[in-house]
Amino acid sequence: MIKFYRIIRQRLITENKFSKYLLYAIGEIILVVGGILIAVSINNGNEDRKAREQEVKYLQNLQTDIALEFENNDRIINYRAATAKAAARILDFKILETGSDLLALERNIQQVFARKNFIPTNNTYKELLNSGNLNYITNDSIKDYLLELDKKYVSIGNHEYHMYREYEEYLYNVTALNGESLNFLDIQKIATTGTMAFKDLSQIPIKTVIPEYNKLLVKTEFINGLKLAVMNNIGLKNSHGKMTNQLQKLNALIHSDLNIYGNDD
């Protein structure tokens, strides 16, 4: 084809038909430019297709993370609600008199004193940030929700840190300095077996432990610590409730985006 065009060009020059040669040259330029534009268009189309395929993978992975996060978030909501109720029940204890009173108190103390932090399920989002690939997500609303969700994670982490500092000062330290605690746990057996083990009521020195707990229950620091535990756990529970709403909206946006292109599972 190139040889054919060269022959025509040489013939036009030889025959001194400049105007026809000029038209031919323009036509040849148009053909070349057109070919280049078509090639660029095809290449851009391929690049766009590859980018969309990568975006779909990220969106589907985000959906997987969100499904796990719903479960994770629900567990922590239930835990925070139970912990707030346990702290409130301890506040209602007046004077311990029997082994059953002691057992009930220690069960609530175990619930309150157990430390559980929320660990986000955001591997895909972290990958998007760390790889610099967040721009693969073309839907600005999805990106905005991801950023807002990340802020919520930071806020919850800060709240947990603040709460457990209060735990240390008003609950852990005060309890540790005012008698034995967690008397129903068989510490030696737990250390040996690696599983939870409890003592029988007959193994507990009730006459010694009950007076110590009665003194602890009226300490101002301990009472204030329990009140703070109620408020903080309820506050965190509500924060996780708001997170659930954010997750639902984000999930709906991703579902809609994938459905438009027929990629939704």
Explain this structure.
The protein has helices spanning 2-14, 18-92, 99-113, 123-131, 140-176, 187-193, 206-217, 220-260. Helix 2 (18-92) runs antiparallel to helix 3 (99-113) and helix 2 (18-92) crosses helix 4. It is built from eight helices and no strands. The longest helix has 75 residues, at 18-92. The chain is mostly helical and 265 residues long.
Provide a brief overview of the structure.
With 265 residues, the protein is mainly alpha-helical.
Topology:
Blueprint: H1 2-14, H2 18-92, H3 99-113, H4 123-131, H5 140-176, H6 187-193, H7 206-217, H8 220-260
Helix pairs in contact: 2-3, 2-4, 2-8, 5-8
Shape: elongated
Terminal Cα separation, in Å?
49 Å
Specify Rg, calculated over alpha carbons.
35 Å
User: If you average the pLDDT, what whole number results?
Assistant: 86
What percentage of the residues does DSSP assign to strands (E)? under 5%
Number of strands: 0
Low-confidence stretches are none
